[in-house]
Model the fold of this input.
Amino acid sequence: MADGTLTIGTRRYSSWSLRGWLAVRLAGLDVEEVVIPLAGGETAAVKAATGGATVPFLDHRGNIVWESLAICEYCAEFLSALWPADPAARSHARAISAEMHAGFRGVRQAMPMSLFRRAEGAGRTPEALKDIARIEHLWRTARVRFGAGGPYLFGADFTNADAMFAPVVARFLTYRPDLAADSWEYCEAVRAHKLIAEWYDLAALEPPDWWIPRYEAPQEAVPAP
Ligand SMILES: N[C@@H](CCC(=O)N[C@@H](CS)C(=O)NCC(=O)O)C(=O)O
Done:
């Protein structure tokens, strides 16, 4: 019998679920996955399953954890390598993860995660472009200072920081904003990770009646303002 459940939302759209799911899978927690089709706003089934909270929602051995960043922290109790070992790198990883958790509303609003949408060049609002510049700066700084040993933000290990930014990578792969070569290299490395590949594969199997038309509608490219 599993040690509990991880409740998540529709994989093709639920960016927060992807973060929590990655941490749980990387830590190897033995939980049953429950996927709730999202309604694209308030989802009654989410509220019912989480007691009024949101997904991802973890119940592990009776420990109830919600909020993706708290789930990442919980998972690091079981796999300390989810944060870098070096204190300077670890505090940096926590800082950029917290910034991701708290912000980047411009990207989140203009470029909602939709894994298979045709939307190359869309969503280039001034707010999104400002966020993208900041995200590229965060990625570059982490990679230059701490990432020499591998393709991820802090080197060879895919850490909680990579999990927190994975949905941003998914957005960039859908909306294809203008990014520097090193940012695209990082995006490709994340996309090639076996858990990200698994997430996309499972998302592709979700039934069409789970699709939300406004997140699937193809979007035209817009010139950068
Ligand atoms: N800050 C939360 C955000 C979670 C969130 O907003 N999740 C969305 C789905 S991606 C949700 O549950 N929305 C409410 C609903 O669909 O009822 C976290 O980090 O986990």
Q: What stands out?
A: The mean pLDDT is 97. Residues 9, 14-17, 38, 42-43, 46-47, 54-56, 67-69, 101 surround glutathione (CB under 6 Å). The two ends are 54 Å apart (CA to CA). The longest strand covers residues 4-9.
